[in-house]
Design brief:
Blueprint lengths: L1 H10 L1 H14 L1 H8 L2 H35 L17 E5 L11 H10 L7 E5 H13 L14 H12 L6
Antiparallel strand pairs: 1-2
Helix pairs in contact: 4-5
The protein binds zinc ion.
Length: 172
C-alpha cells in the first residue's frame, strides 16, 4: 500500500507540488505560528548540541564496521597483513593505492559499499600501521616486518567494548 502511494506521488509530481503549494497558502498562519515557536526551535538546537555529534559519530562507526565486514567478508574484520582485529585501528585500504584520488571517502564510501554501488574487489582491510607500510612499499619500495601483538583485552572484554560502541545490533 505504501509502495503504491509512493509510486503515485512519483508519477504525479506536478499535482503533488500544486497541492502542497495550495496547502501552504491555505494554512499559512498555522505554519508560521509553528515556525515561530521559539521553545521548539531552542529545544531542537539543544538536542543537536547535546546529542548531534555523538549520534553522527556512532552511526558513522556502525557504517564503517559494516562496510569493513563486507570488504573483508568476515564477521569480525581483521587486518589482512598482520591480523589485527581492533576495529579502532582498521581501515579500508585501496590495494593499488589511489584512495586519495577516489571521490568517495569516509561515510560516502561506506554508504556506496553497503548499498552495493561500489565494488570491493580492489579494496582490503588493513590496520593503520599496515596501511602506511603498504603505501611505502608501493610508492618507494621500502619494506617493513610488522607484528601484531594482541589487543590487551580478552574476547569477552572486547565484546563489552563493542556493545558499548555499537549497541546490541546484530551484524551478519
Ligand atoms: Zn596490520
Amino acid at each position: 500500500m505504501k509502495e503504491k502511494a509512493t509510486k503515485w506521488r512519483e508519477s504525479n509530481k506536478e499535482q503533488v507540488r500544486l497541492y502542497q503549494k495550495e496547502y501552504r497558502i491555505k494554512n499559512r498562519e498555522k505554519l508560521m505560528a509553528y515556525d515561530l515557536t521559539e521553545k521548539h526551535k531552542n529545544h531542537r538546537k539543544l538536542w543537536w548540541v547535546r546529542n548531534g555529534k555523538q549520534y553522527c559519530v556512532a552511526r558513522n562507526k556502525k557504517k564503517h564496521f559494516l562496510a569493513m565486514q563486507i570488504v573483508s567478508n568476515q564477521k569480525v574484520p581483521e587486518c589482512c597483513r598482520c591480523g589485527c582485529k581492533d576495529s579502532r585501528a582498521l581501515e579500508i585500504n585501496h590495494k593499488n593505492l589511489g584512495g586519495r584520488k577516489e571521490n568517495l571517502r569516509g561515510r560516502l564510501l561506506y554508504d556506496a559499499i553497503i548499498s552495493g554501488k561500489r565494488k570491493t574487489d580492489d579494496l582490503e582491510i588493513t590496520c593503520r600501521v599496515c596501511n602506511a607500510a603498504h603505501y611505502l612499499e608501493k610508492k618507494f619500495d621500502i619494506h617493513y616486518d610488522i607484528t601484531f601483538k594482541g589487543l590487551g583485552l580478552s574476547q569477552k572484554e572486547r565484546a563489552v567494548v563493542r556493545r558499548e560502541m555499537f549497541g546490541n545490533g546484530k551484524f551478519q
